[in-house]
Prior knowledge:
Number of domains: 2
Strand content: 15-25%
Mean pLDDT: 77
Order of helices and strands: HEEEEEEEEEEEEEE
Oligomer: single chain
Low-confidence stretches: 285-300
Structural class: alpha+beta
Amino acid sequence: MTTCKNNVPHSVASAYTRVELVMVLAMLMVMVWATIVVFKRKISEARISQCASDLVVLRNAVIRHDDQNPPFSASDFGPLVGHYLGSLPFDPWGNPYLVDSKMGTIVSYGLDGRPGGFDQDKDHISHYRPELTVEGATYHGQTGTPVVGNYIVFTFNKPFRVTGDPTTEIFITCNRGRDNEGLFLSGDRVTLIPSSGAPGFSDSGWDGGIWTQVSNRSAVFPVASDPANGLLVIGCLTGSHNGFSIGPDCRVNLRPRGAEPACATLRELMSDGGPFDPSVFPGCLEPGGARSRSPLEGQDVGVPFEFEGR
Length: 310
């Protein structure tokens, strides 16, 4: 048998060398894989950061345009090229930035170019006009237990779209510390949350009340909803019997926290064919992505009522 100088058989020495080589190659592969993962993450972070910077530039360009001209109303950024932008903008993933001039929203849908998603597919959105919010709620009629002809006027900060029964989102609470206890004005029975009775509410007091959106003026309801001017009117069609009374301590919100529906019925007024138009991207599309959101999301107990007697 052939031996090495250290008297170790040559075949054994070669075996040790091959094992060591495999271990080194495995370590190198792990290091290369880790480097690739870190590199991809850095690229993703850089693209997201670039997108955020682009949205600021585009937002400022539209604002400058609106300061000097009638409000921007185009469906793309072409009219801004030359005076406010150097060229048509594309996001870091190669997709054009989308704009909805009615909503005042600029959006990149990320790598996949579609609403929703996570990581590089996440939506990136900038608002150059305020998002849809409720600025006030005025209760008209007899204070106390509602009767036929009482109505509530909700004032939004800009035009909106109603796609369903808005009473499913009207939520009243009189417990200032909790925005998840109160009642909905929806359906043929006012719904108490929690079902066992919310603080200050009587199960027998509101069961018979029927509230609905007022779409046309009448002898009973002298005002009607006007979404184009940011007004929503909800009227009482039948008396709500006895029980809890609406008073100065009450607040109104568009559904309590944690009770968002699958699709909001009150939405931003979207441009036809724009990035949030359901005919282009079906589903519940809101400025925050595919998830519907309350226009009052983030407010603890909603806006207070004002009262005007009749």
